Amino acid sequence: MKREFLANLKVNGEAxxxxxxxxxxxxxxxDIGAVKAQFSDYDTLKQQLDDAQKTIQGxxxxxxxxxxxxxxxxxxxxKYNKAxxxxxxxxxxxxxxxxxxxxxxxxxxxxxxxxSALLDIPALRESKNQDQxxxxxxxxxxxESGYMFDTETPPPYARGTGTGNPAPxxxxxxAGALRERYNK
Length: 184
What we know:
Blueprint: H1 3-8, E1 10-11, E2 14-15, H2 18-62, H3 66-106, H4 112-118, H5 121-126, H6 130-144, H7 174-182
Antiparallel strand pairs: 1-2
């Protein structure tokens, strides 16, 4: 994603502020880093597989008994299955965190990290209907800690709250009240 693309986006006819663009680009960089890390895991797994194949070939060349080869192959298979399971767990955690962050952004949360800290993440993770439960938890948090969310409408303008002293009305004095009463 490029900064120029975001700078040209218009929301309600206005360009996105620089702070929002910076936040979006930071999140995008973190996502790209996570994907790159996943591919480095695959490279590691491929290297482990290559090592296992070399080890098996070495056993064949040495004339090692079949039982030792089976045991070594089983060990490598267990390592591979564990690595795949760990990778799937990491992907599920990343997807869940993305779902929570998206819901917080949709609820106009000011600080996703602080709001996430106040949510019961383990309970939400185990929930059968995560989307609805996350939304309900955010609504409850809005009621308790509304300052952590942007309000929909700004407070109304209060007229006459400036620092200047207004001129006294004519009826503020006894003489002014008498004049008004008898000059009709």
